[in-house]
User: What shape does this take?
Amino acid sequence: MSKQTVRAAAFANIHKITALLGVAATLPLAVFVTSNMLKYELGVWPGLQIPLIHPAILIGGVLVALIMNTWSILDVKVSKTGRGVRVVAEITAHRWNLIALVFACVFFVMMVLTLFVENVLRVMGA
Assistant: This one.
């Protein structure tokens, strides 16, 4: 078995691993946003205890997930031409990384919208 074959076998599942790590990094934000929605917006579980999670973990986790999975599917090549620089970006559709990206984006947008709505309502005096 050659060195390249061993290296290829070792990195064969790297896209699935980065997708799994991305989803795991997004889970604290998913739990926080979902529990806030259930308790305050929908009123489903008024006695629900919302877990206290540091904002750095919430935002940092989703940013790590976005960066890892974008890095995994995006291939950027830069080459110098006679008159300038040529940049080519190619997206490889790794299904699990795309799913992890969508998962992270959905909860990030939900968090931003929730914060926006809460602050607008507070300013308006409602």
Remarks:
- The first strand starts at residue 74 and ends at 80.
- Residues 3-124 form one domain.
